[in-house]
Amino acid sequence: MTDTEKNNTTSFLSSNFKPDLSDEAFRRLATHIQQTYGINLWQKRQLVTSRLAAPLRAKGYSNFNEFIDHLLRTNDQGEVTLLLDKLTTNYTFFMREQEHLEFFRKNIIPDLLERHKSDKTLSIWSAGCSTGEEPYNLTMYFMDALGSSASSWDTRILATDISNRALTAAKEGVYELPATVPNEWKRRYFTHEGGDTYRVQPFVRDNVIFQKFNLMDPIQFKRKFDLIFCRNVMIYFDQPTKDSLVERFFAATNPGGYFLISYSENLSPGTPYRRIAPATFQKPR
Ligand SMILES: C[S@@+](CC[C@H](N)C(=O)[O-])C[C@H]1O[C@@H](n2cnc3c(N)ncnc32)[C@H](O)[C@@H]1O
Questions:
Q1: Over the stretch 152-199, which tens digit does the pLDDT of each residue have?
Q2: Which of 87, 121, 147 is the last residue of a domain?
Q3: 10-19, 166-175, 216-225: which has the minimum mean pLDDT?
Q4: What is the DSSP string of 121-183?
Q5: Given the CA of residue 39, which atom of ligand 1 is nearest to it?
Q6: Domain termination residue (choose one: 40, 67, 87)
């Protein structure tokens, strides 16, 4: 097919797409997303319509129902990827909630390094890492704390997300850095690509293992974790989904291990984690 023919086909398909998201189509899609990925879209009908209409039109669907029928019938991975890339919110940045990171630097890092001084191995998970700023940021804190002995430690961070688009950007590791990133870090941990754009250095990138993982799936990693960051992820889930995920995080945490959420979240009062500071929890030893 020539480019002109392709364009003609696209415009033919586009003109046929009906952009109204019916009550029935929205109910089916929101139910599917909530059951499969935990994300609560019930108040976000406008967002669903605006983020999906153009890509569905471009793919040749004639309405939302046709897309949902296809998705539910085939679980077509191409369409699942499109859906997740469009409907997840990947907003994140370096030094997010800096006061929280300062608490982490001053209190949690020294405790973990002390407790692991003989095996020199930490088990860390950035759950819902989006485009990678969080796990790279944590790596920089650990490298600062370890200094010249960093190479004798295993501080590799498992960083997971369900969005392919976010994970691709994360592996690329190129960012416009906010002014809150210290100049010293810009020199040590990045290469300058021009303007505000910086690329994470390979030795920092190598400390992070990116993996696609749906937090609704059973948590069955080889090791339990000394530290889990899950900030600004559960805000998209309803309370029962959140409570059951926290239970699974707890089971996957080593005794004495830490669990950090964001300042805008909280855990249910019945959580087995012990709250040690705002948005900061610990599993009893
Ligand atoms: C707003 S970002 C948070 C990024 C970072 N943790 C922070 O605090 O800046 C939320 C991330 O959670 C991911 N997410 C949402 N539901 C998920 C699920 N069921 N499994 C894994 N990741 C999920 C989204 O794809 C998105 O990248």
A1: 999 999 999 999 999 999 999 999 999 999 999 999 999 999 999 999
A2: 87
A3: 10-19
A4: B--EEEES-TTTHHHHHHHHHHHHHHGGGGGGSB--EEEEES-HHHHHHHHHTEEE--TTS-H
A5: 16
A6: 87
Query: Taking Cα atoms as reference points, which of 146, 143, 134, 221 lies closest to residue 188?
Result: 143
**Segment holding 211, helix H or strand E:** strand 208-212
Q: How far apart are the CA of 236 and the centre of ligand 1, in A? A: 9
The stretch 257-267 carries a mean pLDDT of: 98
- Distance, CA 75 to ligand 1 centroid (Å)? 21
Distance 94 CA to ligand 1 centre (A): 15
Whether 93 is covered by a domain: the verdict is: no
Instruction: Say yes or no to pLDDT of 47 above 90.
Output: yes
Q: Tokens 């879209």: give the residue.
A: 41
Range of the structural domain that residue 157 is part of: 98-282
Scan for tokens 């471009």, then name that residue. Answer: 58
Cβ–Cβ < 8 Å for 260, 270: no
Residue located nearest, by CA, to atom 12 of ligand 1? 128
- With residue 259 as reference, give the H or E element that holds it: strand 253-260
User: Ligand 1 test: best mutation among 37, 88, 237, most atoms within 8 Å of CB?
Assistant: 88
Cα 245–chain centre separation: 15
pLDDT value, residue 244 = 97
pLDDT of 4 reads 41
Instruction: Tell me what pLDDT residue 12 has.
Output: 41
CB 223 within 8 A of CB 245: no
From the CA of 91, give the closest atom in ligand 1.
Answer: 1
Alpha carbon of 18 to ligand 1 centroid (Å):
31
Which residue's C-alpha comes closest to atom 26 of ligand 1?
A: 90
Please give the number of the atom of ligand 1 that sits closest to the Cα of 163: 25
